[in-house]
Design a protein that fits this description.
Biased composition (Polar residues): 14-24
Largest sheet: 6 strands, antiparallel
Family: Belongs to the peptidase C40 family.
Number of strands: 8
Helix content: 40-55%
CATH topology of the domain at 166-286: endopeptidase fold (from Nostoc punctiforme)
Oligomer: single chain
Keywords: Hydrolase, Protease, Thiol protease
CATH architecture of the domain at 166-286: Alpha-Beta Complex
Structural class: alpha+beta
Radius of gyration: 43 Å
Domain NlpC/P60: 171-287
Order of helices and strands: HHHHHHHHHEEHHEEEEEE
CATH class of the domain at 166-286: Alpha Beta
Low-confidence stretches: 1-33, 35-42, 44-66
CATH superfamily of the domain at 166-286: endopeptidase domain like (from Nostoc punctiforme)
Protein name: NlpC/P60 domain-containing protein
Length: 287
């Protein structure tokens, strides 16, 4: 009996010691255990749990996320190229390659290109051609001298011409005609007048053409006879437009301004002005 009691006690002692070594509990282990998970894992799990509770109909829980690198407000801002490409025409923005916007469309429209609003290779090429035709530096981007010429071209229907050729000479001459014609706006009508004190119709056209570099005869009929007669379809701003009576005679002359308009000295009490051509009984002439 004593021996049996000892074995039983010993077996219990060994069992307790084994349990204690294989299943440790209490603060002792927690105190010395190293965590193998990063601090970010519990936070990520908490965020997932929070979202799950909210979706499942639980109480609303705020989840704080890391700040984003770009906000919607930042992406909505225009780039420098878009700012230039949408600037007002009057400000003559320095538009260049890869800019985009409504003002780029205006440039493309004037250059008679497809208006996609993108200042790409085709726009650069057409602009260089335009610049060379007017003796400007062929940079391929919009600068102030180019804006001045381009807006003038848009208003008068004059575009290309090659410097040093007959076509360029003709185009440049018509441009001069239009500039001189516009300078005299408001000059009073004067029968027989040929100076800035007052003009009649042919006195006005003769004065303007002389300033631009070519001489015309005195009367409207003589001017008609001295010009090459051209069709309305081929007429350009700066050419002469003659008004014909029912019998075919010429009774009035003006300077074609393009788009169905002309510069002229019309009648007593009406100063030199730009006006709409009011009849279809007209003929066009080119010097």
């Amino acid at each position: 009996m004593p021996v049996t009691a000892r074995r039983t006690a010993l077996h219990g002692a060994v069992s307790q010691s084994s349990d204690a070594s294989t299943r440790p509990t209490g603060r002792g282990l927690a105190k010395h255990r190293k965590s193998s998970k990063s601090a970010a894992a519990p936070r990520a799990a908490a965020a997932v749990l929070s979202v799950g509770l909210a979706v499942g109909g639980g109480a609303a829980i705020s989840v704080v996320t890391a700040p984003q690198t770009a906000s919607a407000a930042t992406t909505a801002k225009l780039t420098a190229g878009q700012i230039r490409g949408n600037a007002s025409i009057a400000s003559r923005p320095l538009i260049r390659f890869r800019d985009s916007g409504k003002t780029v469309k205006y440039v493309q429209k004037t250059l008679r290109l497809r208006q996609d609003g993108w200042f790409g290779n085709s726009t650069v090429g057409a602009l260089k051609k335009f610049q060379r035709s007017w003796g400007l530096s062929a940079t391929g981007y919009m600068n102030k001298p180019t804006w001045g010429r381009l807006t003038w071209a848009a208003n008068h229907g004059v575009l290309y011409g090659k410097v040093g050729t007959k076509a360029a000479s003709t185009t440049t001459f018509r441009a001069k005609v239009l500039r001189e014609a516009a300078k005299l706006k408001g000059t009073p009508y004067r029968y027989g007048g040929t100076s800035t004190k007052g003009f009649d119709c042919s006195g006005y056209t003769g004065y303007v053409y002389k300033k631009a570099g070519k001489k015309l005869p005195r009367t409207s009929r003589q001017q008609y006879s001295a010009t090459k007669h051209i069709s309305k379809a081929t007429a350009k701003a700066g050419d002469l437009v003659f008004f014909k009576s029912g019998g075919g005679g010429v009774y009035h002359v003006g300077i074609y301004a393009g788009g169905g308009m002309l510069w002229h000295a019309s009648k007593p009490g009406k100063p030199v002005a730009k006006a709409k051509i009011w009849t279809s009984s007209v003929a066009f002439g080119r010097v």
